[in-house]
Amino acid sequence: MNKVFVVGIGPGGAEYLTGQARAALEASQVLCGYTLYVELIAPLYPGKETHTSGMRQELERCRWALETAQRGKTVALVCSGDSGIYGMASPLLILSPEYPEVAVEVVAGLTAANAGAAVLGAPLGHDFCVISLSDLLTPWETIEKRLRLAAQGEFALCLYNPGSRKRKDFLRTACEIVLAEGRAPDTLCGWVRNIGRPGETAKLLTLAELREEQVDMFTTVYIGNSTTQNVQGRMVTPRGYRT
Amino acid sequence: MNKVFVVGIGPGGAEYLTGQARAALEASQVLCGYTLYVELIAPLYPGKETHTSGMRQELERCRWALETAQRGKTVALVCSGDSGIYGMASPLLILSPEYPEVAVEVVAGLTAANAGAAVLGAPLGHDFCVISLSDLLTPWETIEKRLRLAAQGEFALCLYNPGSRKRKDFLRTACEIVLAEGRAPDTLCGWVRNIGRPGETAKLLTLAELREEQVDMFTTVYIGNSTTQNVQGRMVTPRGYRT
Asked: Which residues of chain B have a CB within 8 Å of the CB of A241?
C-alpha cells in the first residue's frame, strides 16, 4: 500500500505508545526517523527495515518516506512526542501533494507538555500555552511577543527547547519577560529532563529561581499561573478560579 | 497498596490507551470515574470492581477514590483524554494531603487537542493555546481576555467545551473576539466531534463560517494562525515562519 503513517511515539520508551501507534508501526514495512527515536522502538519490531538520519534533516526524511511509499512500501515516519506538535506531520503533509498516490495518516502521541506535566503533578490543569524557545524556524521577536501575551493572559506556560549550548540565555530572557508582565517572582515553576527515559529528573522552583537555571534541549519547562500551588512537592494548577 | 492512579484514557476507545495507562488499570482493583469513561475501558478488565458517578460530581469522586485507597485498595480514577488537562489529577492532588497514607500517581493520556489535531491534519504544528470556553469554573471575563491575547499572539488555538444547550453563543462570541483582534475572516479553522468514538465527524471551514457554526460539548475546535493552510483537505500549521 502507498502509505506513510506519521507516528508520535511519546516521550520515551515503549510504555508511552498508544495502541493506535503500535498498530501503525506493526502495519509498516519500514520504520524511519531520527536515529534516537527509531532506536527506541525498533527492538519491538525485530526484522523490520529501518532508515535513520540525523538532526536537521527533517525535509529529506519526509521526502524519503513519501518516495519509499510511492514505490509501494508502507512507511512509519516516527517522531518523539506527538507527530502533530512541532513534529513531522506538518512538513510531511505540506510535501504530500507532490506524491498524489501516497496516503498520509497522522497518529498522535503523548507530547512532552502532557507527559512532563504528569511527572510534576498537574501544572497544566487549566488553560495553557505551549511555546518553543527555538529561534531556528521562528524570529525571536515573535517568540518574545507570545511570551508577553501569554503572561498577560494568566496562562500556565509550557516551554519547549528552553536551551542549548548556543542559546544559553533564552530561558533567562523568557523568565524576565514573564516577570516584567507582572507574574510574581515566587510563582511556582518546574522542569522535567529526559521525560520517560533513563535518567529522568524533575525539579520545582520559583520563577525567580528558574531565571537563573541552566537547562538543556532535553528539558521541558513549566511556569504556573497565580493559582498554581505546591501540594506536597507536586506542582498543581487548579481547574478553575471559582471554589 | 494505598494508591490512586489518576489515568488519562485518551479520547475514545482502547486503541488510545498507552502502555503505561494499561499497566495502571491492570494494577488497580477498582476502576472508578464518570460512567461513560468507565464503560469504555471496563470490558478490557472483566471482573474488576467498578464505581461510577455522574457529571459534576468530580470532588465526591476524588474523595471516594482516596477513601477507598485509604482502606487498602488500589484505585484507578479514570478520565477522558489526559488526566492532567482539565482533568481529575488537579482536584485529586489538592485533596490528597487529607489522606497522608495514600500515594497518588498521575498517568497522562492523549488529550482531545492532540487527538483531534491528528484527525484534521496538523493544526497545532507550532506554538498554540488551549482554552476552555466553559464558564462553570472560570469567569467569562477571564476567558475573553485569554482569547484576545491568544489572538494577538498569533497562536494557533484549540477550544474545549465550545458549546452546550445552555451556552449556544459562546463559540460565536469567541470567534468575534478573535476576528476583532485582526485574525482574517478566511483563516482556516476546523472542528472534530466525538474524537476516536463511534460517529466521529470533522469539518474544515473559515473563521467567518465557524462564527455561524452550531457545535456541542463533544466537539473540539481549532482556529489556525495566518500561516495555517488547507493541504488537500487537511488543516496544517507549518512548524515555523522561516522557509
From this structure: 137-139, 142
Cβ within 8 Å of residue B140, ≥6 positions away: none
The SS3 assignment for B37 reads helix
A150 touches chain B (CB under 8 A): yes
Q: Please give the model's pTM, rounded to 2 decimal places.
A: 0.96
Is residue B237 a contact partner of residue B124, using CB atoms and an 8 Å limit? yes
Chain B residues whose CB is inside 8 A of the A182 CB are none
The C-alpha cell at B13 is 476507545
B242 at interface of A, judged by CB pairs closer than 8 A = yes
Residues 6+ apart with CB under 8 A from A166: none
Q: Which residues of B are less than 8 Å from A99 in CB distance?
A: none
Q: Which amino acid is at B56?
A: R
By CA distance, what is A112's nearest residue in B?
A: B108
Q: Mean pLDDT by 10-residue block, N- to C-terminus, for chain A (243 residues)?
A: 95 94 97 93 94 84 96 97 97 97 98 98 98 92 97 98 85 98 98 95 98 95 98 95 55
Residue B204 main-chain phi, psi, to 5 deg: -105, 145
User: Residue B243's pLDDT is what?
Assistant: 47
